[in-house]
Amino acid sequence: MKTLFTNIKELLQVRETSIDKVSGKEMATLPIIKDAFLLVENDIIIDFGSMDVCPKIENASIIDATGKVILPTWIDSHTHIVYAGNRIQEFVDRINGLSYEEIFNRGGGILNSAKKLNEASEDEIYEQSKIRLEEVMQQGTGAVEIKSGYGLTVEGELKMLRVIKRLKENYTLPIKATFLGAHAFPSEYKDNHAAYIDLIINEMLPKIAEENLADYIDAFLETGYFSVEETIKIMKAGKKYGLIPKIHVNQFTAIEGIKACVENGALSVDHLEIVNDEDIEVLKNSNTMPVALPSCSYFISIPYTPARKMMNAGLPIALATDYNPGTTPSGNMNFVVATACIKMKMTPEEAINAATINGAYAMGISNTHGSITKGKKANIIITKPITTYYQLPYEFGSNLIEKVMINGKLIS
Ligand code: NIG
Ligand code: FE
Q: Domains of the chain, with CATH numbers?
């Protein structure tokens, strides 16, 4: 089965050979073909180029994309979309003056979501989560990483990871599962961190490995949550089971956490709202992808990741949503890209690179996703007729996506 897209106004992120990420100055370049064709066979991109050399294909279904832009789907490398209920009351409490930290310190925040998660059945959580997954697919997300971390009990964490496994089985987009048992200390372990870490390492991890439920391991490395030393223990334990670290770090404070993550081979370090020069130095010459989450900065009014400073230092940046009930109840990557342009002063080219190829790197799938490259998966966004791709971040509140193709199939 072949599908030929013709007369594409702008075909974005075309890469002749597979690259795994773009860094520093390279991020300013987004390779484009104007007046292009794109040929898909089954679930694979097999050809593209200028309309001048568009092949005649027998038995292909032809989609005329006159006036429209085609680009690879967004890759959302950091989400918590599996959760139960919501935290609407905390949202209102914050409007009325409480901070995220104050809410956590009185037993809300992550512990509030953990209570709801442990009270809900696996089926209930699956039904709630699949609605969110289907919504983000409509919004152009073609691959998603999903974390546990609202269980904080052996059963709760396994329940979350089993829901992620069911989503993997029932949807065709790539899903990676990350074990985040080290998201917060449950209140009963407040004064006995060692016992909770022992539970993670000696009870949760072996069971997760036995059922093959996780691809990555995460921890909330932050003042008041997991210390550098505690996070190192978790990363090392995860690695024994083949789980590579992807770590929440530098959201509120810089405490040399990034250094520990890089030294332990983290695939990504995520949040980075507060970054100092030493952190940037450490990230240079590493293989660790810095991931910015601008919707989180927006929603809880904290600084934005200093993307310009980091790119000037030669670093790559990926963009993701952080979709979760507390700090980012939105999985809309279009809003992330627009906010990166508007608030972080990333150019549209930089933001699109960050949300596609660099996101794919941060999820460990850049050999198959993240660019329009022959042999990669046919995961693409087809826009409505627009003047130029700049319109995507410019009209930040509009839905400019007409169709989304995942694994060669148009979803509706
Ligand atoms: O990425 N910072 C840690 N974890 C989540 C939020 C967790 C929550 O408040 O539920 C985040 O922002
Ligand atoms: Fe997060």
A: 2-73+368-410 (2.30.40.10), 75-363 (3.20.20.140)
For residue 300, the ligand 1 atom closest to its alpha carbon is: 12
Please list the ranges in the chain whose pLDDT falls under 70.
none
Residue 17, pLDDT score: 83
Query: Is the Cβ atom of 109 under 6 angstroms away from ligand 1?
Result: yes
230 lines ligand 1 (CB under 6 A): no
pLDDT at 171: 98
Hey, which of 160, 324, 328, 336 would you mutate to test ligand 1's pocket, going by the most ligand atoms within 8 Å of its Cβ?
324
Question: Roughly how many angstroms between the first and final C-alpha of the chain, as a whole number?
Answer: 19
Distance CA 17, CA 217 (A): 30
Q: pLDDT value at position 16? A: 85
In whole angstroms, how large is the CA radius of gyration of the chain? Answer: 21
Residue from 271, 366, 286, 273 nearest 320 by CA: 271
Question: Do 129 and 83 touch, CB atoms closer than 8 A?
Answer: yes
Longest dimension (CA), the chain: 70
- Total-model pTM: 0.98
